[in-house]
Design goal:
heterotrimer; A mainly alpha (328); B mainly alpha (409); C alpha+beta (170); A: 328 residues; mainly alpha; 3 domains; two-stranded antiparallel ribbon; 15 helices; 2% strand; C: 170 residues; Rieske Iron-sulfur Protein; 2 domains; 4-stranded antiparallel sheet; 11 strands
Chain lengths: 328, 409, 170
């Protein structure tokens, strides 16, 4: 009886220390506060994009002009979303996209335009509309492009401004540029142009081939470095390698960050990429594949080992009892 | 050459040459432990088992780890975690074990303080134990450098900066410790040597010493009572097990140890498989970057109370306070002036002192992690640091005036 | 009573010991797997060699699983051998370039059309058969698969399987 009391005391103080040092401290460390000192709760919007978070940010910053601009922009997007898109008509419009999104792996204005083969599967409809209307506003990086640079995709604004045209192209994408996609493909289409994954042998140029001769391997490396330098100049710094990101950030961080990078790293030049829920799950699955491949094995072996020690403890208890029986 | 008869069996053959039967009696079957103990007495064996797990998992990690700043991170997080068969298991066991061992060390230490197991006759047990605490701390710190993540690098940077000695400005010393201007390759490889060879040898030596210092005074008991071990042993050997106040280490004490260890391993492996972020901090999964300090750096939880004594004061005062705090615990047997060997609940004010110490160390631990920019946390941190420093002199005074407990009362 | 006590004690002790032993075996299995060659090593165990540009009587040395591989396109005056790799009308001698005596790499003497090992003077003919000195057996044929004009070492094709069954590979 007394031993149970002692155990309870030990457990209590251990758990108290754990609580203070882990959940509580991490909450305090990552808390975001506004100018009045009130906590800003960063929640995921479920991978739906309607500008709510963007507008709220601008309001907190007290920038009336930006608030108005964003409100107008996202209202525009909502208008287009209401239109009935004609996929057949949209094919012609999509031809304009192919000009840059052509799979030639050529850097244009800072990055290699991503492959759109499965854009209909992994990106959100609202976001696609917003992206064509104004890429910088859609990605919430308009603060980067204020007066100086133009977004690499900025020219699309003038090439395709008719709301019906945009609706048609998006309908085309959703219908024809969709289908099954592997986690790796999803990552390559959505993220690879900026973020390498060395554990998956992916660089900004794509999968790294196996070279027989060292000279060829080095030549490829130089090409990769050149591309990385271009991306670095465009982004301000080289976007980090994401090999271990799935263990370096919490689930909550990943969700909210990918949905709206500004919510976690205010002022960042990383654009929102507009993944929908399925796109996010696929990307997350790939990042887990490369960064935490033992997860499934852990979850399979865990019950066995814990079960073993439970049995061991029961047998040990019985042995202990038999040893101590004639001592009291 | 001594005279040797032909042995009848293997046991007798070994006994003639190695005195195995004598060893068995002295270390196991006739090594007497008091009967009046609780499960806290098993913490020593739990520590030995955890140390064994750390050595074992460490051996497998050592087969694939590359001590080179360019290769270290990937050798751990790619090769070991995803390529090596069960590499992830050894890594998780090693990381979680390194953290949980300190929980058990603290429980073990506080058990000793509560029951007065550091008092007359047992001073060396306490001192060798404190030396082990220091050795384990050095082992943990050096080990944390090895994955060469962001936390490894910046912890290395901050802690080696301590050696500049505040106003002494001994930057040359800091550079010498690092072998470079900043933590780099030389720094990594020397801590690799310390972690893998030198400190483990020191720990093993200290464990042997720690066991040695136990032998003559014997293990303490829940009442702090003095036991005539010869008499009790004779009683036990005569078959009067109920009357005897002692039990043999093997198999009786060991059976309780093994049970406690079994339960401990359930917790241990639950953490290894399901809840390990407290030991394998996400920040260290970012590769080391000397040009970017993470938003929050902090030591592992078991160093937080020390860290927090350093923080609230100015540079020099902080270092002095830090030094005093470390030494104070060492000198506990000599600060405590009372002759009573008894559990805290029988020692009046000492009991209060004990709980204040425990709570104070937990507050210090929490404050060490919480951002000092918050004024409440900063205040709490300062108060608890001053409290800790005051506890030494307060103990001296309390125990000077402690009423002597009559034996047999 | 005492005997029963002791019996129960021993039984529990043995049951516990058996449980611990099972755990120990599990741990040993995990330890064994830690020493297994890594996936990246096993994946690198296949080498493809393009034979289309090979010249007669000119030795080409490739690498496979860390070992040197001799590829020699046979000229007309070299005897045909059951161990040859035949692609169309061309015959090749393909072997692991390690002397079967004690593992040194023999050099190829083009005029004599022989492999000569400098370590202890062993000699092999253009088909890899030992013809002089201490080597006890011919140069070993590695597993191979013919893929057009390419040879994939590390994979077992039907031609290799035939040689293996006839005991010609060593």
């Amino acid at each position: 009886m007394r031993e149970l009391k002692i155990l309870a005391v030990v457990v209590f103080f251990s758990l108290l220390t754990y609580y203070l040092v882990e959940p509580y401290a991490h909450h305090e460390m990552h808390k975001k506060v506004d100018a009045q000192g009130n906590e800003i709760k960063t929640e995921s919007q479920g991978f739906k994009y309607n500008g709510t978070a963007d507008i709220a940010e601008a309001e907190r910053a007290g920038d009336a002009a930006r608030v108005a601009a964003k409100k107008a922009f996202w209202a525009d997007v909502a208008e287009v979303a209401k239109l009935e898109g004609n996929a057949a008509a949209g094919e012609a419009g999509f031809g304009l996209c192919l000009g840059c999104h052509n799979g030639a792996n050529m850097n244009m204005g800072g990055v290699i335009p991503p492959n759109l083969d499965h854009a209909g599967t992994i990106y959100d409809k609202n976001y696609l509309i917003a992206l064509i209307k104004d890429p910088a506003m859609a990605s919430n990086v308009d603060h980067k492009y204020a007066d100086t640079m133009m977004h690499p995709m900025g020219s699309i604004k003038s090439m395709m401004s008719d709301n019906q045209q945009i609706a048609d192209v998006v309908a085309y994408i959703l219908e024809n540029k969709s289908g099954e996609i592997t986690p790796k493909e999803a990552y390559m289409e959505a993220c690879m142009r900026c973020h390498a994954v060395r554990y998956g042998k992916l660089t900004q140029l794509g999968e790294t081939p196996v070279f027989k001769h060292e000279k060829d391997a080095l030549a490829h490396k130089i090409k990769v470095i050149d591309e990385q330098d271009t991306v670095k100049a465009y982004m301000g710094k080289l976007p980090p390698d994401l090999s271990m990101i799935i263990r370096a950030r919490s689930e909550h961080f990943m969700e909210t960050f990918i949905e709206n990078p500004q919510s976690q790293l205010a002022g960042t030049s990383m654009p929102r990429v507009g993944l929908n829920h399925e796109g996010y799950e696929k990307v997350k699955a790939y990042l887990t594949e490369v960064g935490d491949p033992s997860k499934a094995k852990r979850e399979a072996l865990g019950p066995i080992v814990i079960g073993f020690f439970t049995l061991f403890s029961i047998l040990a208890f019985l042995w202990k009892k038999s040893q101590w029986r004639d001592l009291h | 050459m001594a005279h040797f008869e032909k042995a009848k069996n293997l046991n007798e053959w070994l006994d003639q040459r190695l005195a195995v039967n004598t060893l068995k009696r002295v270390l196991n079957t006739e090594y007497w432990i008091p009967k009046d103990i609780n499960f806290l007495w098993a913490m020593g064996m739990v520590l030995a088992a955890t140390f064994g797990m750390l050595v074992l998992s460490g051996i497998f990690l050592l087969m694939y780890y590359k001590p080179d700043t360019n290769l270290a991170f990937d050798s751990v997080n790619y090769t070991i975690m995803s390529e090596v068969g069960y590499g992830w298991l050894w890594r998780h066991i090693h990381g979680v074990g390194a953290s949980i061992v300190f929980l058990i060390i603290y429980i073990h230490m506080f058990t000793g303080i509560y029951y007065g197991s550091y008092k007359r006759g047992r001073e060396l047990i306490w001192l060798s134990g404190m030396a082990l605490f220091v050795a384990f701390s050095a082992e943990a710190f050096s080990g944390y450098m090895l994955p060469w993540g962001q936390m490894s690098y910046w912890a290395g940077m901050v802690i080696t900066n301590l050696f500049s000695g505040g106003s002494l400005e001994a930057y040359g010393l800091v550079e010498w410790i690092r072998g470079d201007y900043v933590p780099g390759d030389a720094f990594l490889t020397r801590f690799f040597m310390l972690h893998v060879l030198l400190i483990p040898l020191v720990i093993i030596g200290l464990i042997v010493l720690h066991f040695g210092t136990l032998r003559i005074p014997h293990v303490n008991n829940q009442e702090g009572a003095e036991i005539d071990f010869e008499e009790a042993a004779d009683l036990y050997k005569a078959g009067k097990k109920k009357e005897s106040k002692v039990i043999p280490f093997s198999p009786v004490f060991l059976s309780k140890d093994v049970f406690v260890m079994g339960v401990y391993f359930i917790l241990f492996f639950y953490l290894v498989f399901y809840n390990f972020n407290f030991a394998m901090d996400p920040v260290n999964f970012d590769p080391a970057d000397g040009l970017k300090t993470p938003a929050h750096i902090y030591p592992e939880w078991y160093f937080l109370w020390s860290y927090e004594i350093l923080r609230p004061f100015g540079k020099d005062a902080g270092l002095i306070a830090f030094g005093i705090a470390q030494l104070a615990l060492f000198f506990l047997p000599f600060i405590d002036r009372s002759p009573n060997v008894a559990p805290a609940h029988k020692r009046g004010l000492f009991q209060v002192w004990f709980w204040v110490l425990l709570v104070d160390m937990i507050v210090l631990t929490a404050m060490g992690k919480l951002p000092p920019t918050d004024p409440t946390f900063a205040m709490l941190g300062k108060i608890s640091a001053w409290t800790f420093l005051a506890l030494g002199p307060i103990l001296f005074i309390i125990t000077m005036f402690e009423k002597k407990i009559e034996k047999g009362a | 009573m005492k005997e029963k006590e002791k019996g129960r004690r021993d039984f529990m002790g043995m049951a516990l010991g058996a449980c611990a032993a099972v755990g120990g075996v599990g741990a040993l299995y995990a330890a064994k797997r830690t020493w297994d060659p890594l996936p990246s090593v096993k994946a690198a165990g296949f080498t493809t060699i393009d034979l289309s540009g090979a010249q007669e009587n000119v030795l080409v040395v490739e690498k496979w699983r860390g070992k040197p591989i001799f590829v020699l396109k046979k000229s007309a005056d070299m005897k045909a051998d059951e161990r040859d790799v035949v692609i169309g009308s061309d015959r090749f001698h393909v072997s692991i370039g390690l002397c079967t005596h004690l593992g040194c790499i023999p050099a190829y003497a083009g005029e004599e059309k022989k492999f000569k090992c400098a370590c202890h003077g062993g000699e092999f003919d253009a088909s890899g058969h030992q013809v002089f000195g201490p080597p006890p057996s011919p140069l070993e044929i590695p597993p191979f698969k013919i893929d057009g004009t390419k040879l994939v070492l590390g994979e077992t094709g039907p031609e290799y399987q035939k040689m293996l069954d006839a005991g010609l590979t060593v």
